[in-house]
Amino acid sequence: MQHRPIEEPLRPLGAGRGHPVDLVGPEPGQVDPAVLGALLDRHGWRRRGGATGRYARWTLPGAGGRTSLLVPESRAFPDSEELLGEALIALERSGTPSAREVLVSLAVPSDEIRWTRDVPAGPAGVSSWPAEEQLRGAARQMLLAGALAARGRAGYYGARHRRPAAAVLENVLVQTASGGRRLTAFVPVATGRALAVRLHQALYAVREAIDYRRATGGMDAFDSAIEAGVSHELTEALVALVRGTEGARVGVSWAPAAGVPQECTDGDAPVEFSPGDLDVLREAGARFLYAEPAVSVRVTGTVVRMRRTGPRGAGTVRLRVLAGVEVPHVRMTLDEEAYRIAGHAHLVGLPIRVHGRLESRGGFRRLTGATGVVPVQVEEAERDRMMKSLQENLDFFEEACAGED
């Protein structure tokens, strides 16, 4: 399976052929009136009366009264499905961002994560293009930090878990407001609820840790906050969000169709951060970075590069990881005998297995103390594929053979 590049921006709302949000909207029979009412209220629509116990009238302030929806209170009345159908058609024709957001959440039940930044206004009262890019970049960093924390707790992830975490973001959609001050991400419950829950808990934990640092001067709260999902990656995302602003807020609203997660509560206020938090966030990020220990691992992988300075002696080998650790590649230095074994294993189309310590410095991309290098038997089809890959890369073939007798 191929994933989008890890640094690829979030998918804008409505983009992407074949994505569930490209649907015009759900069928009236699939819509829960209570869910529709909750979403309208969340996205700025106002209830303006209606027949008590039968339906409510909803309008969007500032829309000039062009769109008015009649939403039944329940399905207990014969005309409820007809009213729902008319409401959905009106939302589709509205063309407002708010109407589109409601339709998206109806079509694909999603938890909504909102970022708000207080940025100085530029000419004509709008923020600059770099400010918009900074907001989108910080939001993606934060979602990735939440996806990493959902896979396991660590103060610093580096290259670990990156690809599966980035894959979770493939179905996340974003809706930006003019001026680059606000952004909303729609995280599908089916694939991303763990991300939203972990990020929600981590944001409150990092806020409490900052306050504790200010009150006591100690950083101990950050160490315990790791269990809640706080990490170097999250503090870096918060620095990117807050830098250059007068303050920023992050809030999570749960999908009405799925309900509130057991680990969380409903109606929590957004978590606020200010420029005064930046020094503590940077200090915490550095603490996480240098405190994360090396990990003892047994890695199985295919050799993709070999290099040494002479015909004999130790050399450097790069592996594409197949099993043992969730990073795509690792580098290691092997002694002469292990280097020879690695080269021969590759030439006959076999991966190798090696023991060592995955070092945090450099992002968990280097294996130190490598020992026990042995070829690993694989199925014939996989071996043929590896041999074909070798034949297609003659430059590597020459490099792998260099230095051998």
Describe the model.
The chain is of the alpha+beta class and 405 residues long. Helix content is 39%, strand content 22%. A hairpin with an 8-residue loop joins strand 3 and strand 4. Helix 4 (129-151) runs antiparallel to helix 8 (232-242). The protein is elongated and about 85 Å long. 37% of the residues are buried. Residues 1-6, 14-23 and 393-405 have low confidence and may be disordered. Residues 1-27 are annotated as: Disordered.
List the helices and strands and how they pair.
Layout: E1 11-12, H1 33-42, E2 46-47, E3 55-59, E4 68-72, H2 80-94, H3 97-107, E5 110-117, H4 129-151, H5 162-168, E6 173-176, E7 182-188, H6 189-216, H7 220-225, H8 232-242, E8 248-253, E9 271-273, H9 278-291, E10 295-307, E11 315-323, E12 329-334, H10 336-347, E13 352-359, E14 366-375, H11 380-391, H12 394-401
Parallel strand pairs: 1-6, 12-14
Antiparallel strand pairs: 2-3, 3-4, 5-7, 5-8, 6-7, 8-9, 10-11, 10-13, 11-12, 13-14
Helix pairs in contact: 1-3, 2-3, 4-5, 4-6, 4-8, 8-9
